[in-house]
Write a sequence for this structure.
């Protein structure tokens, strides 16, 4: 048992899906998993383990932002021996050609967070996805006619920016969208030699000023979950 996850060693599978929203974790378990059992309710951060196509899979909420998410990533890896971590989350589009409910695979994650500055000093560490998971995701999506974009995303420490045009400098350099956790996930996964990938669904667009509802964010983004479950 760890500080933030009330589970025994065998309660959690080797592969875990990681939505930020604990209610999305609940929805994933109830919608996709057979014989799902809730192993964690600490701080309302639900965690479940069940079966998908005879594969044992867990899904664990991680909260919003790198500091919150790193707590769960760390404990899952260090205390429960998890080997595959797939973030299934939402993102805000920075590009005109990427619209609501589109899928994005985060090949790499730029960030405004300072998590790596202490460790690498004046160097700039580049957090990247696990190549094998990325290829599997792209192959599955292509085979099943699921359109996707793949590239650099921004893991931001700010959800609300005082400058509405701040995103444009990132967009100009090819960043596809913004989210809040992938850079932390890729960093800790690489350090511990485990697999990690962030599969994102566009929930809002800074280009078109459109957004999905809170209910849609919570329980209608099925394609990214389908991809994640079928590559682990």
């Amino acid at each position: 048992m760890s500080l933030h996850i009330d589970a025994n060693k065998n309660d959690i599978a080797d592969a875990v899906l990681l939505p930020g929203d604990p209610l999305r974790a609940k929805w994933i378990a109830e919608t996709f998993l057979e014989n799902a059992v809730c192993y964690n309710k600490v701080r309302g951060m639900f965690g479940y383990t069940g079966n998908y196509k005879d594969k044992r899979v867990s899904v664990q909420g991680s909260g919003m932002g790198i500091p919150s998410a790193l707590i769960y990533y760390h404990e899952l890896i260090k205390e429960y021996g998890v080997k595959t971590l797939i973030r299934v989350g939402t993102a805000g589009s920075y590009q005109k050609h990427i619209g609501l409910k589109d899928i994005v695979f985060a090949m790499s994650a730029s960030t405004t967070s300072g998590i790596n500055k202490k460790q690498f000093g004046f160097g700039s560490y580049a957090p990247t996805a696990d190549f094998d998971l990325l290829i599997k995701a792209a192959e599955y999506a292509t085979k099943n006619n699921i359109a996707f974009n793949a590239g650099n995303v921004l893991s931001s420490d700010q959800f609300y920016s005082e400058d509405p045009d701040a995103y444009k400098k990132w967009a100009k350099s090819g960043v596809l969208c913004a989210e809040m956790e992938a850079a932390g996930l890729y960093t800790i996964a690489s350090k511990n030699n485990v697999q990690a990938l962030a599969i994102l669904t566009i929930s809002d667009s800074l280009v078109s000023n459109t957004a999905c509802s809170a209910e849609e964010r919570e329980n209608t983004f099925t394609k990214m979950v389908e991809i994640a479950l079928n590559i682990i």
